[in-house]
Every structure is written in C-alpha cells, then in structure tokens.
Amino acid sequence: MNAPVNVNQLLADVDHRHLDALEEEAIFILREVAASFERPGLLFSSGKDSCVVLHLAEKAFKMKNPETGKLEGKLPFPLLHVDTGHNFPEVIEFREQRVAEIGERLIVAHMEDSIKRGTVRLAHPLESRNGHQTVTLLEAIEDNRFDCLIGGARRDEEKARAKERIFSHRDSFGQWQPKEQRPELWNLFNTRIKPGEHFRAFPISNWTELDVWLYIARENIPLPGIYFKHPRQVMRRKGLLVPLTDVTPALEGETIETVDVRFRTVGDMTCTCPVESDAASPEDIVAETLHVTVSERGATRMDDRTSEASMERRKKEGYF
Q1: In what order do the strands lie in the sheet with 240-243?
Q2: Beta strand extents in the chain (DSSP E only)
Q3: Are 50 and 43 in contact (CB under 8 A)?
Q4: Tally of CB atoms within 10 A around 25
Q5: CA dist 312 to 160, 177, 255, Å?
Q6: Could you count the other beta carbons within 10 Å of the beta carbon of residue 275?
Q7: Which end of the chain, C or N, has fewer beta carbons within 10 A?
Q8: Do the Cβ atoms of 147 and 38 come closer than 8 Å?
Q9: Which residue stretches of 145-208 are H helix?
Q10: What pLDDT is stored for residue 2 in this prediction?
C-alpha cells in the first residue's frame, strides 16, 4: 500500500536563488570589463534593463554604508546616453533625476548634433530616428575613445541578439560580424582589440524578461513611471497601440482613445508602443509576464516588425 502524499510536496520549491547566480555572473562580467579595458562606458537609456545593469554596477564597485544601507563610491566608468530627441519626456526626466541621485558622470550624445553636422539626414521631420542613432553612437565612441560599452541587451529579446556573445567584438567601423565572434568557454573572455576596434559587453545576456522583473521587485530598483499602469491616448494601428505624441499623430480615419497601458520597453517615441495592462507594481508585472508568449520587442517595437532580419541588419551597421 502506498503512503498518502501531500500534494504540496510534489510542487517545485520556488525561490529566487537563481537570481543570486545571475547577479554573481553579471558582477563578474562588469569587473572583467573594468579590468580589461582602459576607457569603458555604461549605456544608460533609463530603460528597465539599463537600470538593472546600473544597479549591478553599483553593487560591483561601490561599498554599502552599514549605517544608511546606501551604496557609496564612484563607478570606474561614465554613463552614456544617445538622445534621439524623440525620447519620452518621462524617461528623460527620470534619467536626470537618477543620475543626480547617484552622483555619476553622464555623457549625452545628441542626435540633433549629428543632424547639424550632416552625418544624419532625415527624409522628413517625423521620420523615426531609432535607426539613425547608430551614427550618433559611433561618433560618441570615437569622440570619447571608448574601447568597451556595457549594455543591457538580453538573448531572449530577439533572434539576432540570441547570437550575441557576452563580449561582442566590433571592428574598426563599429560593425558586428556574427561569424567573427570569439568563443567564450569556461568564462574565459578574449578581449584583445586592434586600434580603432571596441567591444560591447552584455552582463545580463542570460537573463529573461521575467528574471529582470523579479530582480527589480527584489532589489526595489527605481524605474520611469511609464513602465507601470497609466492612462494614455493611443491609436490602434496594425495590431499595436500607437501613443499619441507630436511625432506620432493620428492618421486620417483613426480613432483616438484613452487606455490604461504600460510600456514593456522604452525607446524612440516613433517606434515604441505600450500594451494594455493593469499592472501597477513590479510584483503585478511579474504575474503578468508569466503569461506572455511574445518578447517585449516583438510585442511593442514597430521597427522590429519591418522584417525578420531588421535587427541583425542594424547590428551589423553598428547598432547596439
């Protein structure tokens, strides 16, 4: 005769120990960057992934004050943001507030400067600037002589990013060649570069969107308010909710409606769309994320719907 078994004993032991492992790996990668390169920088767009990477960097290089519990000290690299001029105002406001709180140096590369120099030419004023930011990024790398840029890209976001190494080599033109990426075995990284070349480093490559939100909830990481439920005027277009802004006006025949939404990712206003949601906290978003079947880029980015290879093409041109 079989002894009675409590059903709860058959359920998996759910805990957050995997977050500790992911955090440890990310901190190791950040310290490898600081040890291997002379002039690294951390890309900070105020998006959720870059906020997580910034928090990890503070844990990696700052000391916690035992009395206040706050992290104190300076990062061994500056922050860099490529400002297209079409960012959501709430995101720019958050960026300024967050940088002021932590007291770090922020370098802002403005696409408006690239337009004035003539290195970026727009077909019309309302054209999406997302693809053009590659030029401004490469100019910022050259101006500041960065030899490595740290970013928050993850492999689960998109097919092209799934091919990415943790230390992604870029040639002297800033381009990414998938077939020339270096093997990464046993956490050994080949960081040698020739003059003019650089690396992009991705400490949270192995994280998922769910991991990011679990970590945000656990660490209480501040984010722009547009990541959570808020009312916004939108138009329904090609299966997406397009926000009503100065650069994304309603088209003829479209109906403007106010919907409770949140953003799963943050980018240029011309290509980033929200999703309908009642999630008002990181814990709510964790519960919501458990049921999604499409990545945040696939669900909300118009620029990634142009073709299956749109992201890979932009990456080969120097996009982050």
Answers
A1: 240-243, 230-237, 257-262, 275-276
A2: 40-43, 63-64, 71-72, 79-83, 106-110, 148-150, 167-170, 198-201, 230-237, 240-243, 257-262, 275-276
A3: yes
A4: 18
A5: 5, 10, 34
A6: 18
A7: N
A8: yes
A9: 159-162
A10: 56
Among candidate residues 149, 168, 157, 196, the one with its CA nearest the CA of residue 42: 149
Name residue, tokens 């105002």: 89
Side-chain-side CA neighbours of 4 within 13 Å: the count stands at 1
How far apart CA 99 and CA 118 sit, in angstroms, is: 30
pLDDT recorded at residue 66: 87
Distance CA 244, CA 233 (A): 6
Cβ burial of 17 (10 Å; 0-12, 13-18, 19+) is exposed
Return the closest-CA partner of residue 297 out of 135, 159, 165: 159
Q: Is 192 left (phi over 0), alpha (psi -120 to 50) or beta?
A: beta
Model confidence over 242-257: pLDDT tens digits? 999 999 999 999 999 9
**Joined tokens for residue 201:** 């480093």
> Encoding tokens for residue 224?
């722009």
Residue 248 DSSP code: S
Is residue 187 within 8 Å of 226, Cβ to Cβ?
no
HSE-up of 193 (CA within 13 Å, CB side)?
Answer: 22
Token pair for residue 113? 């400067």
Map residue 232 onto helix, strand or coil. Answer: strand
Nearest partner of 243 among 222, 267, 223, 224, judged by Cα: 267
